[in-house]
């Protein structure tokens, strides 16, 4: 499926464990290789991601599994936590 980068803005991002992570605020481009290198998220689910008092978080595009009506990223227990414990007992 083809899409334009501008279509990513405002899309909801979920982990492949169906956990809401945030919404796409910006797209980081690797101009040399003509690829997306990361997604900048806002409205971050602070129960899952520790933003350390920043307004958002940047996730590497390499963990994106699917782009459709929403964006699905690979769940990484070390990155996505709840109250200092990995999600789902991982």
Describe, in plain words, how this protein is organized in 3D.
The protein contains no helices and eight strands. It is an all-beta fold and 90 residues long. The chain has a single domain (5-85), classed as PRC-barrel domain (SH3 type barrels, Roll), CATH 2.30.30.240. It has a six-stranded mixed sheet with strand order 4-3-2-1-6-5, with no helix packed on it. The chain has a two-stranded antiparallel sheet with strand order 7-8. β2 (20-30) and β3 (35-42) form a beta hairpin. Mean pLDDT is 84; it is low at 82-90.
Comma- or semicolon-separated keywords:
mainly beta, 0% helix, 8 strands, SH3 type barrels, two-stranded antiparallel sheet, 90 residues, six-stranded mixed beta sheet
CATH topology: SH3 type barrels
Query: CATH first level: which class?
Result: Mainly Beta
The ordered string of helix (H) and strand (E) elements is EEEEEEEE
Helix content: under 10%
Estimate what percentage of residues fall within beta strands.
35-45%
Residue-averaged pLDDT, rounded? 84
Domain module tally: 1
Helix/strand structural class: mainly beta
**Biggest sheet character:** 6 strands, mixed
Question: What layout of secondary structure does this protein have?
Answer:
Layout: E1 12-15, E2 20-30, E3 35-42, E4 57-60, E5 64-67, E6 71-73, E7 81-82, E8 85-86
């Amino acid at each position: 499926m083809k899409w334009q980068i501008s279509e990513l803005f405002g899309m909801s991002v979920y982990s492949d464990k169906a956990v809401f992570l945030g919404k796409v605020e910006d797209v980081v481009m690797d101009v040399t290789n003509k690829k997306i290198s990361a997604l900048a998220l806002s409205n971050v689910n602070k129960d899952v991601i520790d933003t350390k008092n920043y307004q958002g978080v940047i996730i590497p595009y390499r963990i994106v599994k699917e782009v459709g009506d929403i964006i699905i990223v690979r769940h990484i227990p070390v990155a996505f936590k709840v109250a200092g414990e990995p999600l789902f007992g991982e």
